[in-house]
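Customer ticket, subject: "Can you confirm the structure for RND family efflux transporter MFP subunit?"

Message body: Hello, I'm evaluating your service for our small team and ran a test protein. I'd like someone to confirm that this is what the system normally returns, since I don't have a reference to compare against.
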Amino acid sequence: MKYTLTALLALMLAACGEAPKEGAKPSAMQAKAAAKPALTVATTTPQPLDWPQTLKASGNVAAWQEAVIGPEISNYRITEVRASVGDVVKKGQVLARIAADTVESEFAEVRASVAEAEATLAEARANHERAKQLTAKGFYSAQQNTQTQTAADTALARLDAARARLHSAELKRSKATVLAPDDGIISARSATVGTLTQPGQELFRLIRGGRLEWRAEVTAAEVARLKPGQAATLTSPNGEEVAGVVRAVAPTVDPQTLNALVYVDLPAEAAGKLGAGMFARGEFRLGQSPAMTLPQSAVLLREGFAYVFRVEGDKVAQLKVTTGRRSAERIEIGRLDAKAQVVAGGVGFLADGDTVRIVPAQAAAPTTPAAKP
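Agent reply: Thanks for trying us out. I re-ran your input and got the following:
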């Protein structure tokens, strides 16, 4: 059996207990059907919370201080290398040995010259004593007495010079052993057995104390918000978090990148998670600040903008808002009245001006863990 469109609408309205009026048109019936609620929703209002304020940054991990260790005597052959890259060394520990045959020979020669100078001085002083006695008896003239005094003084000066050469030889002999100047970790090694030492040659590099630092880059506008003593958190490449403390903030800004460096001290255990030269991301904790928050389910992200749906009677109005920090399931929002009633969820199915049916929501108290910007 076939029915016209008007007859079908009449049957539908009759089933609902309503009869179509004389001359009713299908478009009016469609408008009545459109007035039905598009979605059943729960509402919520913005809640003020006290959240941590953070600043994200990135930069390289570097050694706090790196000592360059080289030979202090040149043109001597390296006979032994005792340290390699990654070794943890103590202050005074032997890192390498240099052939000391020639050094020992020079030391023995200078020590002999000191003994000779001592003997010469003893003879000159004895001669001067005899000269004084003979001068007193009239056998020596005053000029001869002066000559013996000069000879004794000259012998003393030569002895002092020989002793100075002996001290230099002793110091040179002690430099035949390359020692660690401080506790730390060997980060580079170029020393090789059999090579000759050269002036200014680098044999080892040492990370002093094994200490690392994070050199974070921040913009010129952000650097004023940072100061020594503030806490920072880095994320290592394997996802582990490392805590640090701001040691210093660079007083200048790079004119090319317009960024400033912030130096963050890292704990000793960070050496097992991070390495010098690594790139790391992290954030600085700037303190607490109030935030007006909504559940993330109440915010619609569309085409790079954030929207919420404010309830006005039985309809919703789409409003553009700004977003900020996030914490768990909540997000900081701006440009919204603190008393506004907004749809708490299912916003992806709504459009501006839709009719909704409101049901009570089971409001849960929001938590306040560490927020992310």
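A couple of notes from the result: Confidence is low (pLDDT under 50) at residues 1-10, 16-26, 28-33, 363-373. The domain at 55-63+211-286 is CATH 2.40.30.170 (Elongation Factor Tu (Ef-tu); domain 3). Feel free to reply with more questions.
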